[in-house]
Amino acid sequence: MPSTLQRPIVLIGPMGAGKTSVGKRVAKALGRPFVDTDKLLVSRHGAIAALFETHGEPHFRELERAAVAETLASDDVAVVSLGGGAVLDESTRALLADAHVVLLTVTPEAVGPRISGSDRPLLHHDGLAAWQAIAEARAPIYASLADLTLDTSHRPLSHVVDDIVTWAGTEPA
Ligand SMILES: Nc1ncnc2c1ncn2[C@@H]1O[C@H](COP(=O)(O)OP(=O)(O)OP(=O)(O)O)[C@@H](O)[C@H]1O
Ligand SMILES: O=C(O)C1=C[C@@H](O)[C@@H](O)[C@H](O)C1
Ligand SMILES: [Mg+2]
């Protein structure tokens, strides 16, 4: 049954934490629309790795900020999964003030298999070492925004989804 959630649920966290997979399932469980901003950007501008290579990361962040702003301005969208670095942008962070923000975390040990073979440009050179450095540098930003934090390292997707759905039902509208 569709929920009456008044504010969107926004999933943040490092690459491979499960934002896309979990967000899609939370939206389905709530019977509400879902947007993954990485997927939105790919549908409009092509592969993220090519965008980084051709136009650079700052250009990608601008496109990302616009995509997040547009998505959160829609009355229809209830669950939004962001790209891992979206919260680096100050104005993107400000857009999250009215959302239920859920931080998904994952340990380096657990994320290894999840990111192997992923086409994330920031991981092209050093893989797991790059992931770890990026995740550590961003951890304070993620933590400062989170209303709920869930570690996904050793938990099936369905348990993470159930926790978010239950928590959303207890949050003030
Ligand atoms: N709790 C989990 N247990 C096991 N595997 C998981 C879990 N959550 C996600 N995965 C797997 O990890 C991979 C990455 O997940 P996902 O794409 O959802 O991460 P993400 O946070 O959206 O990453 P990105 O920032 O790169 O978009 C997928 O193959 C997914 O099936
Ligand atoms: O953590 C990051 O900076 C990124 C994560 C991905 O979701 C993509 O948005 C892109 O590869 C950048
Ligand atoms: Mg994703």
UniProtKB/TrEMBL annotation:
Positions contributing to Mg(2+) binding: 20
SUPFAM superfamilies noted in UniProt: P-loop containing nucleoside triphosphate hydrolases
Residues noted as binding ATP in the record, renumbered to the chain: 16-21, 120, 155
CDD domains documented for this protein: SK
Pfam families per record: SKI
Cellular localisation: Cytoplasm
Sorted UniProt keywords: Amino-acid biosynthesis, Aromatic amino acid biosynthesis, ATP-binding, Cytoplasm, Kinase, Magnesium, Metal-binding, Nucleotide-binding, Transferase
EC number: 2.7.1.71
GO molecular function, one term: kinase activity
Cofactor(s) it depends on: Mg(2+)
Cofactor note: Binds 1 Mg(2+) ion per subunit.
Catalytic activities: shikimate + ATP = 3-phosphoshikimate + ADP + H(+)
Subunit structure, as described in the record: Monomer.
Stated role: Catalyzes the specific phosphorylation of the 3-hydroxyl group of shikimic acid using ATP as a cosubstrate.
Family per similarity comment: Belongs to the shikimate kinase family.
PANTHER family with a match to the protein in the record: SHIKIMATE KINASE, SHIKIMATE KINASE 1, CHLOROPLASTIC
Protein's UniProt name: Shikimate kinase
